[in-house]
Amino acid sequence: MKQVIATIALGFLITVLGACAGGPLTTREESAGIGALGGAAVGGAIGAAVHHPGAGAAVGGALGLGAGALIGDQLQGQEVKQADQQRQIDANQAELDRQQKEIDRLKQQREY
Question: What pTM does this model have?
Fold first, then answer.
């Protein structure tokens, strides 16, 4: 059990120190970290049942890292797509505002 706790603590420490190294984490990185920690915890618990908690934590962490990275990549792709759509909506709204001002200007000219 001590090996499981040590492995989880080490994984957490590496994640925290890595996060401090270069700015905010991307969605992919966050998901990979969560997956690795979750996988290590579950793998360690399963490994403890067969008297190999360290190996279980290592395998679980690696599998969790891969799964978390894949899920995070999909989520990040959706975020990028939504941001692109929002930029297009904002550009369309700016064009509508410009056209409305032009209509109002033409109406004022016509009244004089």
Answer: 0.64
